């Protein structure tokens, strides 16, 4: 990777972070105290601290820019509930810290050709920032703040396929022995993707598209949230404790029709767009109602990646070329989801659509290490969450295209429904 390319990624990530909070008031920069989000003022400081910690201190052996940075921003040392109570620097001081860290990183990149180690940790910090930028977006949704405004994006109206309609039906995947996970030729992978290993998969049928809002509304209308037989014991307990009767951002309008909250405004359900902001328990209950099931992560990856004609895996569903607007809804480009029938150019070899972008997809699989797992230097990334979280695949409309690929594993607790998550289903055997 050449220095210019690396520097552009560093600058692009930081610009996106700054734009995601630029319009927030000082009060919004702290926001309500919730278990599922961070105060944005703390989180942007954490992004800068992480970059400084790994790129400037760990690799560069430089002294910290702030003597109090570890005490303020180390996410593994600073308990989540205390982050609102910290003596956080002012907004101006925090923005200065973000700028100073970025500038010092850029100076090192441009001073000489970066070593393999420097490239690795710059990529780690940039992709870490990309993930937090996605979190900033769902934090804005959680709090009902206005949608973010970006300087270099087209609007949803500029995407011709946004109203492409539904995509019903299943595709058949023959199963067999499949290499699940990433291979060492990837320029960067996280430890939980390492390494590709053979798994046996029975033949299966998987939906061509994610479950739509219209399909999910039929489940709600049929009393899906009140029918205990559709919910697991754990899911039933969550439903009772949460008082859930429908997806978290849905309500009935004055005319009795369903609406959903899109940031700070209520809009009619878009029947052919994927349902989103549903958790794993809700996805499983829908599957029982529909006589379906969630795919395992191995099935999901096989449906997305395997090319039966070439006898090999693809990096993306459509092939090995990078994502484009015609193939995947990523990078905030549409400022929302598209109909599940959109973007046919992004189909997998089996005919599954939007397996990259639009909405994260829950799988049935518990988040666990692959065989031979070895922890990476950023040891808190994966290992603390094994066995308690569930795997999601594919990315969503806020995911950066440089981050996602077929082997990338996301993971959340099964009760999380604030994130941009939906699901697709498989036929029962």
Tag the structure with descriptive keywords.
429 residues, alpha+beta, Four Helix Bundle (Hemerythrin (Met), subunit A), paralog of FGE (formylglycine-generating enzyme), 2 domains, four-stranded mixed beta sheet, three-stranded antiparallel beta sheet, 31% helix, globular
Describe this structure in words.
The chain has 429 residues and is of the alpha+beta class. Helix content is 31%, strand content 13%. The protein has two domains: 3-143, Four Helix Bundle (Hemerythrin (Met), subunit A) (Up-down Bundle); 153-429, paralog of FGE (formylglycine-generating enzyme). The chain has nine helices and 15 strands. The strands form six sheets. The protein has a four-stranded mixed β-sheet. Strands 5-6-7 form a three-stranded antiparallel β-sheet, with no helix packed on it. Strands 1-4 form a two-stranded antiparallel sheet. The longest helix is centred in the N-terminal third of the chain and has 28 residues, at 116-143. The chain is globular. The model has no long low-confidence stretch (mean pLDDT 96).
